[in-house]
Amino acid sequence: MKLTCPLCGGQMSERKIDYEFRKKDKYIVVKNVPAFVCVECGEQYFEPEVVEKILNSDIEKEGRRVTCLEEVEVNYAAL
C-alpha cells in the first residue's frame, strides 16, 4: 500500500530517523525511530503507538540525567 503525503501529495517512504524534541528543560534525540517521510517535501509522520511510546517513556532512565541545555540521546529500541 502506497501512502501519500497529506501536505504535498508526494509519496511516503518508511524509514528510521533521528527524532528531536524538547521535554521540559531537556533537548532529546531519539535515534532510529520508525517514521513515514515524504520523499518530496520531507514531512514526517509517525504511527500513534510510536509517538505514545516516546512521550510516555522516562528518558532520564533510558539515557542519563541532564541539566538545562544538555542533550539526551537514546535509541528507540531501548525505550
UniProtKB/TrEMBL annotation:
Which domain of life, per UniProt?
Answer: Bacteria
What InterPro entries does the record point to?
Znf_MqsA-type (IPR022453)
Q: What is the protein's given name?
A: Zinc finger, YgiT-type
Write the lineage as a comma-separated list: Bacteria, Pseudomonadati, Thermodesulfobacteriota, Thermodesulfobacteria, Thermodesulfobacteriales
